[in-house]
Amino acid sequence: MATKRMTPGFSDQVMSLVKSLRSNSPDCVAAGVVDMSTGMLLSYETVDNHPPEVLDLLAGATLDLFQGRTVVMIEDIFKERRGVADDTHFFQEILVNSENLTHLFVRMNEQQDVVAVIVCRKSVNVGMLLAQARRVVREHSL
């Protein structure tokens, strides 16, 4: 069965999502979309030039955050205890603050293995960032 990522227009949808995240997220310096099933950064926009190695590592870091061995173990324990039998993931959003930046990782609603990444200045209003990111992700179902 073909996945939605193989359908015509998916690339355009991803690029549209990235542009919308970049323009609608407050204090945004970069946005991108990661496909965790392939480990690829599908698209990104940034105000700075970054070495290709850093961009390659972003996809791997996103995979580790959402589907690292320990995270999967925690999710499996919760599913077992709650009697959940589907493949839904518990961790939907992850916020990471570094020294100068705030990084928000948000799973897409329809395609749980696709994650939107938004990077903002650390001075960002986190509540506004979450509200805007959730709105944009909801409007761009992939």
**Structural class label:** alpha+beta
Largest sheet: 5 strands, antiparallel
Average of per-residue pLDDT values? 90
Number of strands: 5
Oligomeric state of the chains in view: single chain
Total number of helices? 4
Order of helices and strands: HEEHHEEEH
Fraction of residues in helices?
A: 40-55%
CATH homology superfamily: Dynein light chain 2a, cytoplasmic
Q: Domains counted in the coordinates: how many?
A: 1
Strand content: 15-25%
Topology, please?
Blueprint: H1 10-24, E1 28-35, E2 40-46, H2 52-67, H3 69-82, E3 93-97, E4 101-107, E5 114-121, H4 126-139
Antiparallel strand pairs: 1-2, 1-5, 3-4, 4-5
Helix pairs in contact: 1-4, 2-3
Organism: Streptomyces diastatochromogenes
Protein name: Roadblock/LAMTOR2 domain-containing protein
Key descriptive features of the protein:
142 residues, alpha+beta, 4 helices, Beta-Lactamase, globular, five-stranded antiparallel β-sheet
Protein model, in words:
The protein is an alpha+beta fold. The chain has a single domain, classed as Dynein light chain 2a, cytoplasmic (Beta-Lactamase), CATH 3.30.450.30. Helix content is 42%, strand content 25%. The protein contains 4 helices and 5 strands, in the order αββααβββα. Strands 2-1-5-4-3 form a 5-stranded antiparallel beta sheet, with helices on both faces. α1 packs antiparallel against α4 and α2 runs parallel beside α3. The longest helix is centred in the middle third of the chain and has 16 residues.
Condensed summary:
With 142 residues, the protein is of the alpha+beta class.
